[in-house]
């Protein structure tokens, strides 16, 4: 069928009601958002953002309501979609934006693609990777992996991806989303090493929309975290430690979930695997810890410093 592209959509969307089908690849995926309220009667008040791209650039795509339980888990980073009968709307101005792996990619930020169950009922097809043709010009998924030795020099709020061997995982903890609120964030602390530094990555992992992975992070698993944010504590505390926290678009993968993921081709991921092959598993197991209370950031050594 006759296809359009994202660049053409941005130029012509105001003058059209019906749009030609789109062929795009998913580059980023947000956590699933529940926006239900007691006074509003909605069956499936869910929403999820994706960043999708073709040869012309990248644009946000929003999956609404009952399409979320049907499609969210099938739409992975790297998945190629054929979309028909979608809607176009002006972008929501306050949403978060992931940092693209390819800094040269053009971003169309004024509009977003809306996938709805009606008005119009969107037609979604997933194209298997082996059927994707090079002449379609779809971009590859690119990452921004860093090593532990590079971390200390990165600025506050820098976006990056990491891979490491888990040496510590804490118990799940809860923090109130707001004062006096009944809603909580669920998170846990983890340490991961990659052989480039004596220090581990310190990771604050909030529960994303991957409960099966979040609950199974154990010592000795290979952990990949994407779209993490660098937190450089701005205090004068000499014992300050830089750590990483998840963002709205973070994805977490552990041993058993890596097969077929686009990051397996990344050079730094391959270097980490080579390093792991040179390590003694028995030696690493002796250094691992699980559970317990993990106060972080650490208070100073003495009351005087405090």
UniProtKB/TrEMBL annotation:
<dbReference type="InterPro" id="IPR012340">
    <property type="entry name" value="NA-bd_OB-fold"/>
</dbReference>
<dbReference type="InterPro" id="IPR040893">
    <property type="entry name" value="RADX"/>
</dbReference>
<dbReference type="GO" id="GO:0003697">
    <property type="term" value="F:single-stranded DNA binding"/>
</dbReference>
<protein>
    <submittedName>
        <fullName>RADX protein</fullName>
    </submittedName>
</protein>
<dbReference type="Pfam" id="PF17659">
    <property type="entry name" value="RADX"/>
</dbReference>
């Amino acid at each position: 069928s006759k296809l359009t592209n994202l660049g053409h959509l941005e130029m012509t969307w105001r003058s059209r009601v019906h749009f030609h089908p789109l062929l795009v690849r998913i580059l980023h995926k947000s956590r699933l958002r529940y926006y239900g309220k007691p006074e509003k009667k909605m069956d499936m008040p869910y929403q999820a953002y994706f960043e999708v791209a073709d040869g012309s650039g990248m644009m946000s795509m929003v999956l609404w309501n009952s399409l979320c339980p049907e499609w969210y888990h099938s739409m992975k980073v790297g998945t190629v979609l054929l979309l028909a009968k979608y809607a176009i709307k002006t972008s929501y101005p306050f949403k978060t934006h992931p940092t693209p792996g390819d800094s040269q990619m053009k971003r169309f930020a004024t509009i977003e693609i809306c996938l709805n169950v009606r008005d119009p009922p969107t037609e979604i097809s997933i194209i298997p990777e082996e059927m994707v043709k090079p002449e379609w010009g779809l971009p590859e998924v690119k990452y921004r992996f860093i090593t532990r030795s590079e971390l200390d020099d990165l600025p506050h709020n820098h976006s990056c991806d990491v891979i490491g061997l888990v040496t510590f995982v804490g118990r799940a903890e809860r923090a109130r989303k707001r004062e006096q609120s009944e809603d909580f964030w669920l998170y846990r602390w983890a340490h991961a090493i990659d052989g480039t530094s004596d220090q581990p990555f310190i990771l604050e992992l909030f529960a994303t929309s991957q409960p099966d992975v979040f609950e199974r992070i154990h010592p000795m698993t290979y952990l990949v975290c994407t779209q993490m944010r660098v937190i450089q504590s701005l205090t004068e505390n000499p014992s300050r430690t830089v750590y990483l926290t998840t963002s709205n678009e973070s994805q977490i993968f552990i041993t058993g979930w890596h097969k077929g993921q686009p990051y397996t081709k990344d050079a730094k991921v391959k270097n980490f695997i080579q390093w792991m092959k040179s390590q003694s598993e028995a030696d690493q197991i002796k250094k691992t810890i699980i559970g317990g209370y993990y106060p972080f950031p650490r208070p100073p050594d003495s009351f005087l410093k405090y």
